[in-house]
Amino acid sequence: MANASLVEMVVVKVSPYLREDRPLVWLGEKDVDQPRLLPIAIGEFEAAAIQMQLEEDEPIRPISYDLLSSMLDRIQVDVRQIIIHTVRRSIYYAKVVVEKGHKIQDVDSRPSDAIALALRTCSPIFVARELLDKVGLEPLETEVNIENTLDRFYELEPQISETRNPESETAQIDLEEGKSNVTIPTETTLQEVDELGLLQAQLEQAVLCEEYEEAARLRDEIELLGNKSES
Amino acid sequence: MVQMEVSGVYNSSPQSSYPQVVLKEIGGDAYLPIIIGRFEAAAISMAQNDQTPARPISYDLARQILVGMESKVVRVEITDLHESTYYAEVHLADGEGQEHVLDARPSDAIALALRFNAPIFASPGILEEAGFSRTNELGESTAAPADSIGVEREEPAVIEEDPGNELEQLKRRMQQAIAEEVYEEAARLRDEINRLEDN
After folding, report:
1. Is B157 a domain residue?
2. pTM
């Protein structure tokens, strides 16, 4: 679905412990030569759910996203697309667009839940062009630049976390904002998010969604890229 | 089936460092402890205490989508305890009044039930096997014996296949084709599998 105001993205990877023990999910622009990147800080549970799907690890029992995806399947609701549309006061907002028959509906969501669901339903992931223009990382930025700009992306999703007080039975909302301590990550996580990495991520997702024609195309493209860098 | 309610969510217990949710028989004295994940425990606890998160979590998202599509969770059942793993069912009613039953982990089922005000049931067999009562045994213990508490497992499963089955053979060949990156072959096998599965 071509839409000038939306950019299709692919989930490149989850980097678990880049900073502050908060995982990041990395989205990369799909099918362009110089893909821009969008990292979003998410919760550990949600990161595990996304990672599990990327690695095709089937849990022995369905986790919440598997349950949701099978419920939607059963009542014939399609997840048409998910859209990450806004960032406001350090929080990203997304919506899940669902469809049943002629009925189409937007449902407010955190990006992590939307992405975890989209991977299970093989639905396209979009980011508002305006948002990506504003906060997307350019592929040619040096690693130093990226380190400096990463702070902008350490924008947290509100999430629930276990209570720190063992006496208490109630859960609490963990909504931390504005991390100011900049620690330069020692891992070379970013180097893996290059053109090749992005193509490979797309290939994995095409295989996951049984889109083998697309997989064949991506395989050839990866091979071509490999030959180019050798010569 | 015995109707239950959530009695409490505990961060840890003498038996485990994982949280547990304890279900209590409505109008009775049977308790059922289930060890669950931390995220799920927090999600149950919040719903039980009528707390609304600043942003929807996965169960809230599920509720919003289902409600928007005129569907709802009408009941959940803790149906089985097998090799220390609890199994549950979510009963979902769609807009056409049809009921669908889905396999679920008890934690997800309970977290959803609370968001739909749907009743929670447990099978009498499970209560007998893993439940406890506050008044029996002279009120001596309020905790279940460690070995009787079931957990929810999340490790990857080993998928067993029947080698004689044509469908399984095709699926294996497709996996092989994927492993060898012969995606054109994989596409052909996928279509064949879909045709077989539709029949």
Report:
1. no
2. 0.77
